[in-house]
Specification:
With 197 residues, the chain is mainly alpha-helical. The protein has one domain: Arp2/3 complex 21 kDa subunit ARPC3. It is built from eight helices and two strands, in the order H-H-E-E-H-H-H-H-H-H.
């Protein structure tokens, strides 16, 4: 789901980078020193999970875990995913340097929205599934929009990528639901604890 350099139009790059930078700035302001280890661990989990690619036509599918990161980090998802994506671009050429902002926005915003939605769902296991599934679905939708706004000819490829991520969204839903159940039993204070104000 990483968009490479040279694909997006300058307007999409600029708008995506500005919005992502704003999210990163707010996230850094809201995260306390006490919450930094949690942010670092989730950045590492995202970094490793999204390096495992399954070939899918013109792209590859991979776990994102942005729903889970959003539930735990809130605003902190922006700096967490930014660091993970920047390191992946610099070390492994996954995505691109110029597209780090758009990639961050495409993955962090749906996770952030999961953080807002999760407390409204009474059944936390169902909430975890919805967050995991919705995080991927939201990211795929934003990828589709980013590519479509850059060039209409990208829409068929974006549609194939979106369809290929349906199994990934289901898998993420199950993983996130299991993680939420585990955390509710072992460390319930982690759920929604970061920058809860």
């Amino acid at each position: 789901m990483h968009i490479s350099d040279g694909v997006l139009s300058p307007a999409v790059l600029a708008v995506g980078t500005i919005i992502a930078a704003s999210g990163v700035a707010v996230g850094l302001k809201k995260i306390s020193y006490r919450e930094m280890p949690t942010l670092a661990v989730l950045t590492s989990v995202f970094f490793v999970a999204s390096l495992i690619h399954i070939p899918l036509g013109p792209a590859g599918a991979h776990l994102i875990l942005n729903g889970l990161a959003g539930i735990i980090l809130g605003w902190g998802i922006f700096p967490a995913l930014f660091m993970g994506l920047l390191l992946q671009a610099m070390l492994f050429s996954h995505g691109g340097i110029t597209t780090v902002g758009v990639n961050t926005l495409n993955m962090a915003l749906p996770g952030f929205l999961c953080w807002k939605l999760f407390p409204l769902i009474k059944n936390k296991q169902a909430g975890g599934f919805i967050a995991g599934f919705g995080g991927v679905a939201g990211s795929v939708l934003m990828l589709w929009v980013s590519l479509g706004l850059s060039r209409q000819s990208f829409i068929p490829a974006a549609t194939i990528i979106a369809a290929g991520h349906i199994p990934v969204a289901i898998a993420e839903g199950l993983v996130t639901a299991a993680a939420v159940v585990f955390l509710m039993k072992t460390s319930p204070e982690l759920i929604g604890s970061c920058n809860a104000s």
